[in-house]
Amino acid sequence: MFNLQRLFTINEFLRKFRISRKILFIIFFLLLLQAVLEALSAGLLVPFLNSFQSVKGETNESDNRVILFMSQFFEEIEVGNRFIYILLAIMSMMSLVQCLIVFSNRLIFRFSAFEVEYKISNILFSKILNSKLKFFYKQRSGDLINQLTADVDRCNTCLNRLLQIASYLFFEIGYIVISFLILPFYTLYFIIILGGFLILYKKFLPYMYSLGVVNRSAQQDANNIIVETMQGFRNIILLTAQKISNNKYREIMYKYYTTVYKSLWFTTSLAPFFKFLSFLLIVIVLLLCRGILITGDREFLSRMIFFIYVIGNVFRYMGTINSLHASSAFSYEGIVALIKLDTELDNYKEQDHFHPKKQHDFNNILVNNLNFGYVHGKRILDNISLSIMKNERVAFVGSSGSGKSTIVDIISGFHDDYSGSIKIDGLELRYINKKDWRALLGYVGQETFLFNETVRNNLYFGFQRDINESELIDACKKAQIYETIMSFENKYDTVLGERGVRLSGGEKQRLAIARLFLKDPLIVLLDEATSALDSASEKKVKDALDVLSRGRTVVAVAHRLSSIADFDRIYVMEKGKIVESGTHAELLERKSYYYKYWLLQSLEI
Description:
Layout: H1 4-16, H2 21-43, H3 45-51, H4 65-71, H5 79-129, H6 133-137, H7 141-182, H8 184-202, H9 205-231, H10 233-238, H11 242-288, H12 290-295, H13 298-347, E1 364-372, E2 381-389, E3 393-398, H14 404-411, E4 419-424, E5 427-428, H15 434-438, E6 441-444, H16 455-460, H17 469-478, H18 482-486, H19 505-519, E7 523-527, H20 535-549, E8 553-557, E9 569-574, E10 577-582, H21 584-590, H22 593-604
Parallel strand pairs: 3-8, 3-9, 6-7, 7-8
Antiparallel strand pairs: 1-2, 1-4, 4-5, 9-10
Helix pairs in contact: 1-13, 2-5, 2-7, 3-13, 5-7, 7-8, 7-9, 7-13, 9-11, 9-13, 11-13, 17-19, 19-20, 21-22
């Protein structure tokens, strides 16, 4: 069965995901009670058959104490009918076992659905939503999808199979104990034979674990291919690479279904194999005991019938147990994967610290000797010092990869593992409550993400307060997206499609700006918000941003220098350092980095 290391891993899994031990103990108690009752009811059949030899109920007190005890409850009943009532009592006990099985199965299924799948998926999804941005840089979308769906299902399968194994194992132990009390010599030999088969079965377990590893890896790769195909569909079509993508997917799925086939073949073969062994062993027992059986010793015959009944049941349960165990071994890799994911999410958890930052309470951002890198030993930002005052408009320009967007990410609170200091009104940013701080921020990036929802739901997304229709219309008009929305048949109830496919790039940006008008932030962060737009779209977006920027602090990353020429201060960055700063006029006068960028863009025009 499971070795100690794997049992410790499962215990760690239960602890990490706070899976109710109370329900587990109740389930185990019910399973144990089932086994005891079934073993007792089955064990009563032997003394009952022996006692039933006499219609008068003459019994040997030493051998039939249980029957005598049960007879006391039916003393007033005629002796000839007494054994019928005893038989009904035994059958009632067996029926009670079946009722307990139904109830415990209901508990097991509820445990699987709500204590395992529902709880684990919710815990992980919540942790993903509250993890640092750096976590997503090293994750593939397909991997996370696989972990939140297939791996959670694998965990449920593994735990469910273990509970079923416990159930059948209790039955087996009960049968063997009763059999040992009735025919100890034969039962001892039977246990030795059973142990031999278990040792043989154990040799196949590493194969099942390896199948589970390959199966999970293949499914993860398949999910990644699906996600990447959907995201890069346009490129695949333009490169006429459909056949390459199809072959890649087919190869992965062949590997996946090969492991599924091998696993199913192995698990479904175990039950009939053990049934065959039980038939074989019964034949051997009957052949060895044929002399005693022929002599007509009725008491031994009734015991031997019970022993054969035990052999059949034990091997039947053993086949089921080994089949379930093989299935749990195949699914075990999901438990390992989710423990690893949970640990990783804990390491990347965004911390909420001590000084809650109140809304509408911002005067300045002071950055001093800021250093940061995504990879240890490789700095993206090197000794950055700057200041951003309330209602100032500040821009960052420079070559690609110079660290401009990283500064915006750090100001947004996505990275706490920087050195140096970033102080908001004298409080260190890493110690400010991130939710409260982000309530002051509004963000428009180079590419706006829209949900496959209505225009209205996209605009309302993230707001805790009620927004009336007049506010909505006013925000859309200021963002110059109102006429576009009115051109749709369903107006604000128009579904925008996957990633807002019904809107152009400029329309998406203006919808994002309308959302910021509704939020009314103190600080507006712009990360190359117009760089991917044509001239006409850029002008509309810039006009909307100009309206949005009035009376607010603006921090912008810009590619087109003309869009930030009227800003209060411009920082020029190269290789993670600020190489110069000043107003547009001051930087042109110096004729250094900024001047060269300006000349290059002037030539492009």
